[in-house]
Amino acid sequence: MKDVNIGICGLGTVGGGTWEVLQRNARIIAGRAGCNLRVARVANRSPRPDLGLGDTPFSTDLNDVVNDPDIDIVVELIGGYDDARRLVLAAIEQGKHVVTANKALIAQHGNEIFDAAREKNVIVAYEAGVAGGIPVIKAIREGLAANRIQWLAGIINGTGNYILTEMRAGRDFDEVLKEAQELGYAEADPTFDVEGIDAAHKLTIMASAAFGVPLQFDRAYTEGIANITPYDITHAEALGYRVKHLGIARSREDGIELRVHPTLVPEKNLIAKVDGVLNAVLVDGDAVGQTMYYGPGAGDEATASAVIADLVDVARTVSTDSAQRVPYLGFESDAVTDHRILSPNEIRSAYYLRIQALDRPGVLAKVASIMSENGINIESIMQKESELHDGQIPVILLTHTVLEKQVNDAIAEMEALPEVEGRVVRIRAENFL
Ligand SMILES: NC(=O)c1ccc[n+]([C@@H]2O[C@H](COP(=O)([O-])OP(=O)(O)OC[C@H]3O[C@@H](n4cnc5c(N)ncnc54)[C@H](O)[C@@H]3O)[C@@H](O)[C@H]2O)c1
Ligand SMILES: N[C@@H](CCO)C(=O)O
Ligand code: NA
Protein backbone atom coordinates (compact mmCIF):
# COMPACT_ATOMS: atom_id res chain seq x y z
CA MET A 1 0.00 0.00 0.00
CA LYS A 2 1.25 3.47 -0.94
CA ASP A 3 2.28 6.02 1.74
CA VAL A 4 0.85 9.55 1.71
CA ASN A 5 3.15 11.78 3.76
CA ILE A 6 1.68 14.19 6.24
CA GLY A 7 3.32 17.09 8.08
CA ILE A 8 1.52 18.26 11.22
CA CYS A 9 2.04 21.90 12.25
CA GLY A 10 0.88 22.51 15.83
CA LEU A 11 0.76 19.76 18.44
CA GLY A 12 -1.66 21.29 20.93
CA THR A 13 -5.12 19.99 21.75
CA VAL A 14 -6.15 19.15 18.17
CA GLY A 15 -2.66 18.28 16.89
CA GLY A 16 -2.10 15.90 19.82
CA GLY A 17 -5.51 14.30 19.29
CA THR A 18 -4.80 13.89 15.57
CA TRP A 19 -1.49 12.16 16.30
CA GLU A 20 -3.13 9.80 18.82
CA VAL A 21 -6.03 8.77 16.58
CA LEU A 22 -3.77 8.33 13.54
CA GLN A 23 -1.67 5.87 15.56
CA ARG A 24 -4.51 4.03 17.27
CA ASN A 25 -6.72 3.58 14.18
CA ALA A 26 -3.97 3.34 11.55
CA ARG A 27 -5.29 0.09 10.04
CA ILE A 28 -8.92 1.21 9.80
CA ILE A 29 -7.90 4.56 8.33
CA ALA A 30 -5.60 2.96 5.75
CA GLY A 31 -8.37 0.53 4.84
CA ARG A 32 -10.70 3.43 4.09
CA ALA A 33 -8.15 5.72 2.44
CA GLY A 34 -6.51 3.07 0.28
CA CYS A 35 -3.10 4.33 1.44
CA ASN A 36 -1.10 4.74 4.66
CA LEU A 37 -1.37 8.19 6.19
CA ARG A 38 2.21 8.45 7.42
CA VAL A 39 3.20 11.32 9.70
CA ALA A 40 6.52 12.24 8.12
CA ARG A 41 7.26 15.36 10.21
CA VAL A 42 5.79 17.41 13.05
CA ALA A 43 6.43 20.97 14.22
CA ASN A 44 5.45 22.71 17.43
CA ARG A 45 6.77 25.53 19.63
CA SER A 46 7.76 23.03 22.31
CA PRO A 47 8.33 19.24 22.33
CA ARG A 48 5.51 16.86 23.30
CA PRO A 49 7.33 13.92 24.94
CA ASP A 50 3.95 12.69 26.28
CA LEU A 51 2.84 11.80 22.73
CA GLY A 52 5.52 9.18 22.10
CA LEU A 53 6.55 10.57 18.72
CA GLY A 54 9.35 7.98 18.44
CA ASP A 55 11.69 8.80 15.56
CA THR A 56 9.20 11.06 13.75
CA PRO A 57 11.26 14.16 12.83
CA PHE A 58 10.32 17.06 15.15
CA SER A 59 11.16 20.74 14.79
CA THR A 60 10.13 24.05 16.28
CA ASP A 61 10.24 25.77 12.87
CA LEU A 62 7.11 25.38 10.73
CA ASN A 63 9.18 26.03 7.60
CA ASP A 64 10.81 22.63 8.08
CA VAL A 65 7.43 21.04 7.32
CA VAL A 66 6.52 23.33 4.43
CA ASN A 67 9.92 22.93 2.79
CA ASP A 68 10.14 19.14 3.21
CA PRO A 69 9.87 17.82 -0.38
CA ASP A 70 8.53 14.46 0.84
CA ILE A 71 5.42 15.95 2.42
CA ASP A 72 2.19 15.73 0.42
CA ILE A 73 -0.29 17.23 2.91
CA VAL A 74 0.35 20.00 5.46
CA VAL A 75 -2.00 19.92 8.47
CA GLU A 76 -2.35 23.43 9.94
CA LEU A 77 -3.29 23.22 13.63
CA ILE A 78 -1.48 26.27 15.03
CA GLY A 79 -4.54 28.56 15.01
CA GLY A 80 -4.72 32.37 14.65
CA TYR A 81 -4.81 34.58 11.57
CA ASP A 82 -1.37 35.72 10.44
CA ASP A 83 1.10 32.89 11.03
CA ALA A 84 -1.52 30.40 9.82
CA ARG A 85 -2.19 32.44 6.65
CA ARG A 86 1.54 32.61 5.87
CA LEU A 87 1.96 28.89 6.56
CA VAL A 88 -1.00 27.81 4.42
CA LEU A 89 -0.11 30.09 1.48
CA ALA A 90 3.50 28.86 1.63
CA ALA A 91 2.35 25.22 1.62
CA ILE A 92 0.07 25.89 -1.37
CA GLU A 93 2.91 27.67 -3.14
CA GLN A 94 5.00 24.50 -2.68
CA GLY A 95 2.21 22.50 -4.32
CA LYS A 96 1.11 20.81 -1.09
CA HIS A 97 -2.47 20.06 -0.06
CA VAL A 98 -3.69 21.57 3.21
CA VAL A 99 -6.00 20.34 5.95
CA THR A 100 -6.90 22.89 8.64
CA ALA A 101 -9.12 23.19 11.72
CA ASN A 102 -8.81 26.97 11.63
CA LYS A 103 -12.18 28.63 11.00
CA ALA A 104 -10.81 32.10 11.78
CA LEU A 105 -8.36 31.63 8.92
CA ILE A 106 -10.97 30.36 6.45
CA ALA A 107 -13.63 32.95 7.37
CA GLN A 108 -11.14 35.85 7.07
CA HIS A 109 -8.78 34.71 4.33
CA GLY A 110 -10.63 31.83 2.66
CA ASN A 111 -11.37 33.66 -0.61
CA GLU A 112 -7.65 34.42 -1.04
CA ILE A 113 -6.56 30.93 0.07
CA PHE A 114 -8.99 29.11 -2.25
CA ASP A 115 -7.89 31.28 -5.19
CA ALA A 116 -4.27 30.38 -4.50
CA ALA A 117 -5.18 26.69 -4.17
CA ARG A 118 -7.10 26.70 -7.48
CA GLU A 119 -4.10 28.29 -9.14
CA LYS A 120 -1.81 25.52 -7.85
CA ASN A 121 -4.37 22.75 -8.29
CA VAL A 122 -4.20 21.66 -4.64
CA ILE A 123 -6.91 20.98 -2.07
CA VAL A 124 -7.63 22.95 1.11
CA ALA A 125 -9.99 21.11 3.48
CA TYR A 126 -11.49 22.59 6.65
CA GLU A 127 -14.17 20.24 8.06
CA ALA A 128 -12.68 20.38 11.58
CA GLY A 129 -13.11 24.16 11.60
CA VAL A 130 -16.92 24.04 11.67
CA ALA A 131 -18.76 22.29 14.50
CA GLY A 132 -15.66 20.22 15.39
CA GLY A 133 -16.23 16.51 14.89
CA ILE A 134 -19.65 16.85 13.23
CA PRO A 135 -19.31 16.27 9.46
CA VAL A 136 -21.45 19.30 8.67
CA ILE A 137 -19.41 20.71 5.77
CA LYS A 138 -19.62 17.27 4.17
CA ALA A 139 -23.39 17.30 4.72
CA ILE A 140 -23.90 20.78 3.24
CA ARG A 141 -21.55 20.49 0.24
CA GLU A 142 -22.27 16.89 -0.69
CA GLY A 143 -25.09 15.24 1.22
CA LEU A 144 -27.52 18.10 0.52
CA ALA A 145 -26.25 18.93 -2.98
CA ALA A 146 -29.74 18.42 -4.47
CA ASN A 147 -31.32 21.14 -2.34
CA ARG A 148 -31.91 24.84 -2.46
CA ILE A 149 -30.91 25.52 1.15
CA GLN A 150 -33.25 28.10 2.64
CA TRP A 151 -31.82 28.59 6.09
CA LEU A 152 -29.58 26.99 8.67
CA ALA A 153 -29.25 27.56 12.38
CA GLY A 154 -26.92 26.09 14.93
CA ILE A 155 -25.23 25.97 18.27
CA ILE A 156 -21.71 26.23 16.89
CA ASN A 157 -19.55 27.24 19.82
CA GLY A 158 -18.96 24.49 22.35
CA THR A 159 -17.45 26.78 24.99
CA GLY A 160 -20.39 29.20 24.90
CA ASN A 161 -22.94 26.38 25.07
CA TYR A 162 -21.03 24.82 27.96
CA ILE A 163 -21.11 28.14 29.85
CA LEU A 164 -24.84 28.73 29.23
CA THR A 165 -25.65 25.15 30.28
CA GLU A 166 -23.70 25.43 33.54
CA MET A 167 -25.15 28.91 34.26
CA ARG A 168 -28.62 27.34 34.22
CA ALA A 169 -27.40 25.11 37.03
CA GLY A 170 -26.51 28.26 38.96
CA ARG A 171 -22.76 28.26 38.35
CA ASP A 172 -20.66 31.37 37.91
CA PHE A 173 -19.71 32.54 34.37
CA ASP A 174 -15.98 33.06 35.01
CA GLU A 175 -15.55 29.79 36.86
CA VAL A 176 -17.17 27.80 34.03
CA LEU A 177 -15.14 29.60 31.36
CA LYS A 178 -11.96 28.66 33.24
CA GLU A 179 -13.09 25.03 33.27
CA ALA A 180 -13.80 25.09 29.50
CA GLN A 181 -10.27 26.43 28.96
CA GLU A 182 -8.78 23.64 31.08
CA LEU A 183 -10.73 21.07 29.06
CA GLY A 184 -9.17 22.43 25.83
CA TYR A 185 -12.49 23.68 24.38
CA ALA A 186 -11.82 27.43 24.37
CA GLU A 187 -9.92 29.42 21.77
CA ALA A 188 -6.41 30.68 22.62
CA ASP A 189 -8.15 34.05 23.14
CA PRO A 190 -11.42 33.06 24.88
CA THR A 191 -13.09 36.38 24.00
CA PHE A 192 -13.53 34.76 20.56
CA ASP A 193 -15.87 32.24 22.23
CA VAL A 194 -17.57 34.63 24.66
CA GLU A 195 -18.17 37.46 22.19
CA GLY A 196 -19.51 35.23 19.42
CA ILE A 197 -16.60 35.81 17.02
CA ASP A 198 -15.80 32.09 16.74
CA ALA A 199 -19.46 31.28 16.02
CA ALA A 200 -19.54 34.08 13.41
CA HIS A 201 -16.48 32.56 11.71
CA LYS A 202 -18.26 29.20 11.47
CA LEU A 203 -21.58 30.68 10.38
CA THR A 204 -19.87 32.70 7.64
CA ILE A 205 -18.33 29.51 6.25
CA MET A 206 -21.56 27.49 6.41
CA ALA A 207 -23.59 30.29 4.80
CA SER A 208 -21.21 30.46 1.84
CA ALA A 209 -21.30 26.69 1.39
CA ALA A 210 -25.09 26.68 1.69
CA PHE A 211 -26.01 29.69 -0.48
CA GLY A 212 -23.14 29.97 -2.98
CA VAL A 213 -21.87 33.43 -1.98
CA PRO A 214 -18.29 34.57 -1.20
CA LEU A 215 -17.09 34.51 2.43
CA GLN A 216 -18.08 37.82 4.08
CA PHE A 217 -17.17 37.58 7.76
CA ASP A 218 -17.18 41.38 8.10
CA ARG A 219 -20.90 41.48 7.25
CA ALA A 220 -21.94 39.02 9.98
CA TYR A 221 -23.92 40.54 12.87
CA THR A 222 -22.17 39.30 16.01
CA GLU A 223 -23.36 39.34 19.61
CA GLY A 224 -21.92 37.13 22.37
CA ILE A 225 -23.15 35.75 25.67
CA ALA A 226 -21.38 38.14 28.03
CA ASN A 227 -24.58 40.09 28.80
CA ILE A 228 -26.77 37.06 29.49
CA THR A 229 -27.70 37.03 33.17
CA PRO A 230 -29.13 34.22 35.33
CA TYR A 231 -32.14 36.53 35.77
CA ASP A 232 -33.01 36.45 32.06
CA ILE A 233 -32.30 32.71 31.81
CA THR A 234 -34.80 32.10 34.63
CA HIS A 235 -37.47 34.39 33.19
CA ALA A 236 -37.09 32.96 29.70
CA GLU A 237 -37.70 29.55 31.28
CA ALA A 238 -40.82 30.83 32.99
CA LEU A 239 -42.08 31.69 29.49
CA GLY A 240 -41.22 28.16 28.26
CA TYR A 241 -37.93 29.01 26.53
CA ARG A 242 -34.20 28.18 26.77
CA VAL A 243 -31.51 30.73 26.03
CA LYS A 244 -29.08 29.37 23.42
CA HIS A 245 -26.28 31.09 21.54
CA LEU A 246 -27.15 30.52 17.88
CA GLY A 247 -25.76 31.28 14.46
CA ILE A 248 -28.59 31.82 11.97
CA ALA A 249 -28.27 32.24 8.19
CA ARG A 250 -31.33 32.65 6.02
CA SER A 251 -31.54 33.26 2.28
CA ARG A 252 -34.36 35.69 1.39
CA GLU A 253 -35.38 37.31 -1.90
CA ASP A 254 -33.82 40.63 -0.86
CA GLY A 255 -30.62 39.24 0.71
CA ILE A 256 -29.07 36.95 3.29
CA GLU A 257 -29.49 37.17 7.06
CA LEU A 258 -26.16 36.35 8.72
CA ARG A 259 -26.36 36.69 12.48
CA VAL A 260 -24.96 35.27 15.69
CA HIS A 261 -26.59 36.09 19.03
CA PRO A 262 -28.21 34.66 22.17
CA THR A 263 -31.67 33.39 21.23
CA LEU A 264 -34.77 32.21 23.07
CA VAL A 265 -35.90 28.86 21.67
CA PRO A 266 -39.03 27.00 22.82
CA GLU A 267 -37.96 24.27 25.28
CA LYS A 268 -39.70 21.65 23.14
CA ASN A 269 -37.38 22.35 20.16
CA LEU A 270 -34.70 19.67 19.69
CA ILE A 271 -32.03 22.34 19.60
CA ALA A 272 -33.08 23.58 23.07
CA LYS A 273 -31.96 20.22 24.47
CA VAL A 274 -28.41 20.44 23.11
CA ASP A 275 -26.28 21.03 26.19
CA GLY A 276 -22.67 21.28 27.30
CA VAL A 277 -19.88 21.25 24.71
CA LEU A 278 -22.20 19.60 22.18
CA ASN A 279 -23.08 21.40 18.95
CA ALA A 280 -26.03 20.99 16.61
CA VAL A 281 -26.76 22.42 13.18
CA LEU A 282 -30.22 22.45 11.62
CA VAL A 283 -30.36 22.81 7.84
CA ASP A 284 -33.56 23.43 5.89
CA GLY A 285 -33.47 22.27 2.26
CA ASP A 286 -36.40 22.59 -0.15
CA ALA A 287 -36.31 18.90 -1.10
CA VAL A 288 -35.29 17.14 2.10
CA GLY A 289 -36.93 19.45 4.66
CA GLN A 290 -35.16 19.99 7.97
CA THR A 291 -32.16 17.83 8.91
CA MET A 292 -30.12 18.16 12.09
CA TYR A 293 -26.47 17.32 12.73
CA TYR A 294 -25.52 16.82 16.36
CA GLY A 295 -22.34 15.93 18.21
CA PRO A 296 -19.17 17.15 19.92
CA GLY A 297 -18.23 20.63 18.71
CA ALA A 298 -14.80 20.72 20.35
CA GLY A 299 -12.22 18.56 22.09
CA ASP A 300 -9.00 16.81 21.06
CA GLU A 301 -10.07 13.49 19.52
CA ALA A 302 -13.52 14.68 18.41
CA THR A 303 -11.89 17.41 16.32
CA ALA A 304 -9.17 14.98 15.19
CA SER A 305 -11.96 12.81 13.78
CA ALA A 306 -12.80 15.60 11.31
CA VAL A 307 -9.14 16.41 10.56
CA ILE A 308 -8.50 12.78 9.65
CA ALA A 309 -11.69 12.49 7.59
CA ASP A 310 -10.33 15.38 5.51
CA LEU A 311 -6.95 13.66 5.25
CA VAL A 312 -8.66 10.53 3.91
CA ASP A 313 -10.68 12.64 1.45
CA VAL A 314 -7.59 14.47 0.23
CA ALA A 315 -5.56 11.27 -0.05
CA ARG A 316 -8.31 9.69 -2.14
CA THR A 317 -9.09 12.76 -4.23
CA VAL A 318 -5.55 13.53 -5.33
CA SER A 319 -5.91 10.90 -7.97
CA THR A 320 -9.05 12.62 -9.37
CA ASP A 321 -9.02 15.27 -12.08
CA SER A 322 -9.14 18.62 -10.25
CA ALA A 323 -12.17 19.76 -12.27
CA GLN A 324 -14.16 16.90 -10.71
CA ARG A 325 -13.36 17.75 -7.07
CA VAL A 326 -15.91 19.08 -4.58
CA PRO A 327 -15.68 22.90 -4.88
CA TYR A 328 -14.25 24.72 -1.81
CA LEU A 329 -17.49 26.38 -0.81
CA GLY A 330 -19.75 23.82 -2.43
CA PHE A 331 -20.33 25.76 -5.67
CA GLU A 332 -18.12 26.15 -8.75
CA SER A 333 -16.71 29.70 -9.11
CA ASP A 334 -19.04 30.60 -11.98
CA ALA A 335 -22.07 29.55 -9.89
CA VAL A 336 -21.25 31.85 -6.95
CA THR A 337 -23.68 34.78 -6.75
CA ASP A 338 -23.46 38.25 -5.22
CA HIS A 339 -26.72 37.91 -3.27
CA ARG A 340 -26.06 40.57 -0.58
CA ILE A 341 -25.82 40.04 3.19
CA LEU A 342 -28.56 42.04 4.95
CA SER A 343 -27.89 44.67 7.62
CA PRO A 344 -29.03 43.91 11.21
CA ASN A 345 -32.00 46.32 10.90
CA GLU A 346 -33.38 44.13 8.10
CA ILE A 347 -33.43 40.94 10.21
CA ARG A 348 -36.83 39.47 11.10
CA SER A 349 -37.26 37.80 14.48
CA ALA A 350 -39.39 37.69 17.62
CA TYR A 351 -37.94 39.45 20.69
CA TYR A 352 -37.80 39.03 24.46
CA LEU A 353 -37.57 42.47 26.07
CA ARG A 354 -36.92 43.30 29.71
CA ILE A 355 -37.69 46.84 30.75
CA GLN A 356 -36.64 48.12 34.18
CA ALA A 357 -39.65 50.35 35.01
CA LEU A 358 -40.56 52.52 37.99
CA ASP A 359 -43.63 51.25 39.83
CA ARG A 360 -45.94 54.06 38.69
CA PRO A 361 -49.44 53.86 37.30
CA GLY A 362 -49.67 53.98 33.52
CA VAL A 363 -46.19 52.58 32.73
CA LEU A 364 -47.56 49.40 31.18
CA ALA A 365 -49.97 51.42 29.06
CA LYS A 366 -47.11 53.62 27.79
CA VAL A 367 -44.99 50.58 26.91
CA ALA A 368 -47.93 48.96 25.15
CA SER A 369 -48.68 52.09 23.16
CA ILE A 370 -45.03 52.47 22.03
CA MET A 371 -45.10 48.87 20.85
CA SER A 372 -48.33 49.32 18.95
CA GLU A 373 -47.23 52.62 17.36
CA ASN A 374 -44.21 50.76 16.01
CA GLY A 375 -46.41 48.03 14.58
CA ILE A 376 -45.24 45.39 17.08
CA ASN A 377 -47.69 42.77 18.35
CA ILE A 378 -47.09 41.44 21.86
CA GLU A 379 -47.22 37.67 22.36
CA SER A 380 -47.04 37.80 26.16
CA ILE A 381 -46.27 40.27 28.91
CA MET A 382 -45.23 39.58 32.48
CA GLN A 383 -44.78 41.76 35.55
CA LYS A 384 -44.49 40.28 39.03
CA GLU A 385 -45.38 42.40 42.08
CA SER A 386 -43.06 40.11 44.06
CA GLU A 387 -40.10 41.54 42.13
CA LEU A 388 -40.72 45.13 43.22
CA HIS A 389 -37.34 46.41 44.39
CA ASP A 390 -36.22 50.00 45.11
CA GLY A 391 -39.47 51.26 43.58
CA GLN A 392 -38.69 49.41 40.31
CA ILE A 393 -40.43 46.47 38.78
CA PRO A 394 -39.29 44.74 35.58
CA VAL A 395 -41.67 44.35 32.65
CA ILE A 396 -40.90 41.28 30.52
CA LEU A 397 -42.51 40.85 27.17
CA LEU A 398 -42.31 38.66 24.13
CA THR A 399 -43.17 40.03 20.68
CA HIS A 400 -44.43 38.38 17.51
CA THR A 401 -42.00 38.25 14.56
CA VAL A 402 -41.13 41.77 13.35
CA LEU A 403 -38.37 43.66 11.57
CA GLU A 404 -35.46 44.43 13.92
CA LYS A 405 -35.67 48.11 13.01
CA GLN A 406 -39.17 48.31 14.54
CA VAL A 407 -37.86 46.86 17.80
CA ASN A 408 -34.83 49.14 17.86
CA ASP A 409 -37.05 52.19 17.34
CA ALA A 410 -39.42 51.05 20.11
CA ILE A 411 -36.49 50.40 22.49
CA ALA A 412 -35.12 53.90 21.87
CA GLU A 413 -38.54 55.40 22.69
CA MET A 414 -38.93 53.29 25.83
CA GLU A 415 -35.45 54.14 27.09
CA ALA A 416 -36.39 57.82 26.73
CA LEU A 417 -39.40 57.44 29.06
CA PRO A 418 -38.81 59.00 32.52
CA GLU A 419 -40.25 55.82 34.10
CA VAL A 420 -37.69 53.52 32.44
CA GLU A 421 -34.29 53.02 34.06
CA GLY A 422 -31.14 52.09 32.12
CA ARG A 423 -31.05 49.98 28.98
CA VAL A 424 -33.77 47.64 27.78
CA VAL A 425 -32.52 44.03 27.60
CA ARG A 426 -33.22 42.50 24.16
CA ILE A 427 -32.83 38.81 23.27
CA ARG A 428 -34.09 37.46 19.95
CA ALA A 429 -36.45 34.46 19.93
CA GLU A 430 -36.76 31.80 17.20
CA ASN A 431 -38.89 28.68 16.81
CA PHE A 432 -37.35 25.54 15.26
CA LEU A 433 -37.79 21.79 14.85
N1 LIG B 1 -9.58 22.85 20.74
C1 LIG B 1 -10.64 22.48 20.03
O1 LIG B 1 -11.52 21.79 20.54
C2 LIG B 1 -10.77 22.91 18.59
C3 LIG B 1 -11.84 22.41 17.84
C4 LIG B 1 -11.96 22.77 16.48
C5 LIG B 1 -11.03 23.61 15.93
N2 LIG B 1 -10.00 24.09 16.68
C6 LIG B 1 -9.00 24.92 16.01
O2 LIG B 1 -7.82 24.16 15.89
C7 LIG B 1 -6.67 25.01 15.93
C8 LIG B 1 -5.74 24.55 17.05
O3 LIG B 1 -6.43 24.63 18.27
P1 LIG B 1 -5.89 23.93 19.60
O4 LIG B 1 -7.01 23.99 20.57
O5 LIG B 1 -5.24 22.65 19.29
O6 LIG B 1 -4.78 25.02 20.04
P2 LIG B 1 -3.56 24.80 21.00
O7 LIG B 1 -3.16 26.14 21.51
O8 LIG B 1 -3.83 23.72 21.98
O9 LIG B 1 -2.42 24.26 20.02
C9 LIG B 1 -1.74 25.05 19.10
C10 LIG B 1 -0.30 24.53 19.02
O10 LIG B 1 0.35 25.18 17.92
C11 LIG B 1 1.65 25.55 18.33
N3 LIG B 1 2.01 26.77 17.58
C12 LIG B 1 1.30 27.90 17.47
N4 LIG B 1 1.97 28.78 16.69
C13 LIG B 1 3.12 28.19 16.33
C14 LIG B 1 4.23 28.59 15.55
N5 LIG B 1 4.28 29.80 14.97
N6 LIG B 1 5.25 27.72 15.40
C15 LIG B 1 5.21 26.50 15.99
N7 LIG B 1 4.18 26.05 16.74
C16 LIG B 1 3.15 26.90 16.90
C17 LIG B 1 1.57 25.81 19.82
O11 LIG B 1 2.81 25.58 20.42
C18 LIG B 1 0.50 24.82 20.27
O12 LIG B 1 1.09 23.61 20.72
C19 LIG B 1 -7.22 26.43 16.10
O13 LIG B 1 -7.38 27.00 14.84
C20 LIG B 1 -8.59 26.18 16.72
O14 LIG B 1 -9.49 27.23 16.45
C21 LIG B 1 -9.84 23.75 17.99
N1 LIG C 1 -13.46 27.15 20.83
C1 LIG C 1 -14.25 26.40 19.93
C2 LIG C 1 -13.51 25.17 19.49
C3 LIG C 1 -14.22 24.38 18.41
O1 LIG C 1 -14.23 25.09 17.20
C4 LIG C 1 -15.55 26.01 20.61
O2 LIG C 1 -15.63 26.11 21.84
O3 LIG C 1 -16.50 25.66 19.92
NA1 NA D 1 -17.03 19.59 11.28
Automatic annotation (TrEMBL):
Pathway entry: Amino-acid biosynthesis; L-methionine biosynthesis via de novo pathway; L-homoserine from L-aspartate: step 3/3; Amino-acid biosynthesis; L-threonine biosynthesis; L-threonine from L-aspartate: step 3/5
GO terms assigned for molecular function: homoserine dehydrogenase activity; NADP binding
Superkingdom to which the source organism belongs: Bacteria
Catalysed reactions, semicolon-separated: L-homoserine + NAD(+) = L-aspartate 4-semialdehyde + NADH + H(+)
Gene3D superfamilies the record matches: 3.30.70.260, Dihydrodipicolinate Reductase, domain 2, NAD(P)-binding Rossmann-like Domain
Family: Belongs to the homoserine dehydrogenase family.
NCBIfam families: PRK06349.1 (NF004976)
Protein name: Homoserine dehydrogenase
Species annotation: Vreelandella halophila
